[in-house]
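Revision sheet: structure tokens.
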Amino acid sequence: MNERRFNWPLWIGFILTPVAFLSYFVFFAKFPITRDVPWVNLILFAIAVALLFAGIRRAYATPSTARKVIATLVVVIGVAITAAFVYAAYPGSRVPQSASAPAIGSHAPDFTLPDTNNQPVSLSQTLASAPKGVLLVFYRGYW
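Predicted:
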């Protein structure tokens, strides 16, 4: 009854972590619903981490020291890949402050751009006709 069993949760979790990491850049970054908030990848990482911890619990239930060391190393690598992705997707993706950008609350410089009818419209002209102010919205383009 002392047969060695394959620790499948550990190894499936270990294989799933780089798959979850790479699938964002290869596939999910192409679609706005998964590019802006990588929810599919976060679910994949949650499954992978759960499998890794189930695998390490299983490894520590055996008396084999080698299995414990290997399982610990595999879990550390898997968690490090997960942490790298979460850092890259959230705090690491922040755009740095620009020294030449206008400060919050300061007046925007005057500019003139074409409207939807291709007629020039300036900011000062729009401010003169709008007594309460103007809301400027800048869209990030993907073209």
